[in-house]
Amino acid sequence: MPWNRRAGHQTAALSLAAATVVLGGCASTDPVAVDESPSPVKSSVVQPQQPRATVTEKPVSYPPAAPESTVRTPSGHLVNDCVPRRLHKYVTTLTTEDGKHLSILVLGNGPNAVYFGHQYGGQICNFLDLAEEFAGRGYRVMLPEFRNHVASEKSAASSSLDAKAAFDKLKDLGTKRVFLVGASCGGTTAAVQGVESGIPVVGLTLLSSPARCDDDAVAAVKKIKEPSLFMVAHNDMQGAHEQQIRELYEASAAPDKHLVAIDGEAHGTLMLYGSKEADKRRAMVVSFIVNTYTANNEAGVQD
Q: Which CATH number does 19-298 carry?
């Protein structure tokens, strides 16, 4: 399928049902609340209201996975050309434990973070609109582009090591709480490395994530008791991904957990774009993260 690079998503003829099936967790059988405010697609992106993170890593020379789609920022860092120039000052480079280099965006500031891990075959801009929205809401946002994807180093894939480098950076920045979001394998390793990072996890959202991909997410979700949202399309990989996400849902230790299953075969972030129903699902994801952080704050968790 061809890339719509500016939108950050593949263009495809998607068959998405108007009705979304929501299966509640053991604490509640009610559907996840959907924010009735205008959809992020129809309204302008919320711009951050406070200073963003200061990046300190020095530029590094390395062969990017897709040099034809990679540009260099004024400070010398490599970045996917889907990232608008106004965000280039927030691009930096991370070096993983095995010496590979990643292009990342660090937006917002403060102790409360949202981590976004894109799917294999995806790119940094798959979550860019959500990243900007949450930076605008006062959160620090970590958005890595995995190795062998566009502006990060050309190399054999390892989203596990890449996610670890991103969480290590979050710890260096003083992060005290993190909400984990990931699509496909980017969600699998978000759950695993998020738990292993030692940063307190506020909540989890997985989109079409396999139970095992570079890491074992089943073991991870058994340790996450915070609110968790699992989303998948029935016909994604002829039902294989639904089977995987249901395994994670059943293994989840969260009393407040929700499984959202939709018609069609859209994978990962493609479930959040392309129709009015997809717009509602994206609003659901935003509301779930915001409401989870709000409940966490009301429970008396101190920054």
A: 3.40.50.1820
